[in-house]
Amino acid sequence: MVLEKHDYKTSSTKLKSVVDKYPKSGIAPEAQYWLGVSEYKATHNVDALLNAWRKIMNDYPNSIWADKVSFAF
User: Fold this and answer.
1) How far apart are the C-alpha atoms of 36 and 15, rounded to whole Å?
2) What Gene3D superfamilies does this protein map onto (predicted)?
3) Tens digit of pLDDT for each residue in 32-69?
């Protein structure tokens, strides 16, 4: 995965594509989680991370990924 290679810009683009194309899929909440991580790693912008994770809380509240990020809110 490009995230593991520290190519955060490419990673963010690919993960956003997954979320945008397949928002109802089971993989979308996880992709949104890693999108936040990738954007944070690329920019060190905490707001980017929190916005991505807030989207999980709003769009996928019953997912395990919402549980994982709930500590941040």
Assistant:
1) 9
2) Tetratricopeptide repeat domain (1.25.40.10)
3) 999 999 999 999 999 999 999 999 999 999 999 999 99
pTM, to two decimals: 0.91
Alpha carbons 59 and 17: distance in angstroms, whole number:
16
> Could you tell me the CA-to-CA distances from 54 to 6, 32, 38, 71 in Å, in that order?
24, 10, 15, 11
**What is the pLDDT at residue 6?**
81
In the chain, domain spans: 8-72
Length of the chain: 73
User: What is the pLDDT, as a whole number, of residue 2?
Assistant: 60
What three-state secondary structure class fits 29?
A: helix
